[in-house]
């Protein structure tokens, strides 16, 4: 019986080639998109699940509020791990990670720059599942100057993984130090929220013993709870613990300020954490939901096409159903026949979809920034999933047409009284509206994403990021960095240059507390040189720039407008004083610069204090500025870069010449949004294609049903344009209805997405409260730029 159903289905599909082609193509594209999104979602949701105890590992976070400055950090003070172990019996183990940026190791006689090194406690391997190939996991990092490598790095430096006891030479400040290799681990999985190749002993870092809980250093602290422990109840005990160690917390809370600790489950970090000082670029659970929804909608569009085309095609099957019923076929046999055809079409579509995915996967990886691949392991879950999806989609898509067609009354059919074609299909019209509502929704969403990205990329940031070349690892030059800067400035095409570790598009931030007008304020504190403001294209609103010829400028500072506001300088802040550090050293304000964005445009501008770099003498060689920012203006950029590289080689024989452009670094802050925009564009195009494919099929069948009407109209003098208008009228009405339904829904969702940006395309574009025309009307300076222009937030 089943064989007969399949044989008959083949004949029917072969006889109706256009109908079969349209259905297979539509379903194939829908299934291909669904499979691509399945790969993406599986990859995104698998982060950190390689850890055996992943459900018991939590990261400790720090939340700060000082006046109007609020920050959420993924780091803690060094001592937090210790007090967790001391005070909470439900804490089984703790571990701290401290990134060791841009390290030079020697491979033979050649120094090699490595960016994936980290200091960590010896308990690392007791918390995270990082299998050892060689060495003792319990003691590998117990001693100072010990190091554990991944097998990839062992092969890179020694051409073998059997390197236990060997020495890896580290180059620092033109000097060398030895690191004893005490272990080799397997390469870390790509699906990890941190990914390092060199694990150095925390015992080598003096600052790891700092006992001040108010001093926030970039230590990522993790705790492993005992089985059955409730992390929420543990988290509730943190406020009392902090008050035990920080006697000023009560006074802070009276002023509405706070220092808090919180926990983030390890398995939530990649998709649900977006704090500052994360160890890697995280994903976003919202995009997982969005892409999953888009995949479902596109698959639904393809299924709707199948239903619409099948019911519209009913006129060609009506007589077949009538004859079969007259000859004694039961309805259940007719249903089985039509469902067999649907499953068969879905099966062919699935085969085509797999081929499409195979061909499109490299393009999808490029757009999404992933490294997805189809391996033998993939087929373990892919093949059963494909068979299940084929059966489910075939039955769901074919159910309505099967029951619709099998319900025809044979007498009415043979008399020609069955309503066929496009007219009279209320459900079919509703499905067309649904199809185009989805397509229009995706179109609007994609346009909003691209408009916001365009706004971000073209917004005035308060500094000029164009044509600024960043030469990195300047600290390798030690005291010769200033000489290198001066020689670079002499090169043709160089406008200016400045030395600093702190740049608007960088990751290094120094958050500290300053006192002004008898109140304490959290602010960014950036040591810079005398050419910083000019090179960055920042604008002085009041006062003057730094002057190296004035000895008093060693204690001078320049603040931004936000700092002037939150520090309570109601009048002219020039020559006013602030106090910094434990010894409350006094600094005098010589200038106010207009606010500039140094974080993502998702965040508001916060206070910044610039001070002369000479005010912070290096404690040791190599503590100098990290970057040389070179403002260029040349038609031959490659030649200029080559000239700077030649200068670099004369100053540093060990350091690799590494550079980037500031505008590219800025754009990288929004890589997630850019990928989202590209993926949305791709899926929107596919959704429109599928919807138009179905509409084409419906229009073709509608025209076929109205052949006699068209002939009569032409005989009576109707021209081609009027015939097209007549045939298109019904479809255009449905598209207009779809627009009216989809537009408000798209507006609501995209408005929610835009609310994640402090600066968005439809809001005040002055850049800060202190540029706002209503500035003098403010009583509390907070977030005016997130309000419509002219409506300041009181």
What key attributes describe this structure?
disordered C terminus, 24 strands, 6-stranded mixed beta barrel, single chain, 794 residues, alpha+beta, 13-stranded mixed β-sheet
Structure description:
- This protein is of the alpha+beta class and 794 residues long.
- It is 44% helix and 18% strand.
- It is built from 23 helices and 24 strands.
- Strands 1, 2, 3, 4, 5, 6, 7, 8, 9, 10, 11, 12 and 13 form a 13-stranded mixed sheet that branches.
- A hairpin with a 4-residue loop joins strand 20 and strand 21.
- The radius of gyration is 33 Å and the shape is elongated.
- It starts with a helix and ends in a 40-residue tail after the last helix.
- The C terminus is likely disordered.
Largest sheet features: 13 strands, mixed
The radius of gyration over CA amounts to 33 Å
> Number of helical segments?
23
Number of strands: 24
Query: How far is the first residue's CA from the last residue's CA?
Result: 78 Å
Identify low-pLDDT runs. Answer: 420-424, 615-622, 764-794
The portion of residues assigned to helices is 40-55%
Q: In percent terms, what proportion of residues is strand?
A: 15-25%
Mass-distribution shape: elongated
Q: If you average the pLDDT, what whole number results?
A: 80
Q: Find the structural class using helix and strand composition.
A: alpha+beta
Quaternary:
single chain
